Amino acid sequence: MLCINFDVDFDVEAPTEATRRKERLLNTLKREVKIIMEESVNRKAINAKSTYVTSLCAAVEQCLLDGLKRRLLGLFGGRSTYALLHNIAKFCPEAATVLTLTIRAHDDEIVFV
């Protein structure tokens, strides 16, 4: 007589939608970092306007936006990364520099359009 014993742990909970979304965002971010690292090795330099940089920035932004969406009005009164950056810039000089560069780039973009 053949007896097969399957050990099944029924106490393990299924991942929630938030957990699955977080894992998906982190996997996307990891993939984009890996791609940009591979490109930097192959090309020795990557242009700031390259699609690799744009994809990485989009992945980072999605992670930030996911965190902001889980809070009512995102702690800062707005649900955008720009609002977050604007509020952090008051206390962090590096964020103020990034905000200044972002505003300057946006203004340059408007001039060229």
UniProtKB/TrEMBL annotation:
Ranges of residues in domain RUN: 47-113
InterPro entries on file: Run_dom (IPR004012), Run_dom_sf (IPR037213)
Coiled coil: none
Gene3D superfamilies per the UniProt record, alphabetical: 1.20.58.900
Highest taxon of source: Eukaryota
Name of the protein in its database record: Bm10889
Native species: Brugia malayi (Filarial nematode worm)
